[in-house]
Amino acid sequence: MAGLSFDVLRAGRKYRLINFGEKSEFVIEKILVGGDFKVKDLVTLERYHLKDLFAYGRGKDFLLEEI
User: Fold this and answer.
1) Which of 5, 12, 38, 46 is most buried by a 10 A CB count?
2) Architecture per CATH, 2-66
3) Model-level pTM greater than 0.90?
4) Is the Cα dihedral 1, 5, 47, 67 positive or negative?
């Protein structure tokens, strides 16, 4: 596991998450209680919680980076 830790994520910044071969680019809209984040996808403009992206585990290619 490489890249950023969830502790350093900040609202208003853009990030890329790669997990199980799927790439997601998003901006963090709000930091929620319990270590979760409300995010907005930069491609589809869909809003969801960050934990939904790795709800089924973290793959060998798990990478979180700022863009």
Assistant:
1) 38
2) Roll (2.30)
3) no
4) negative
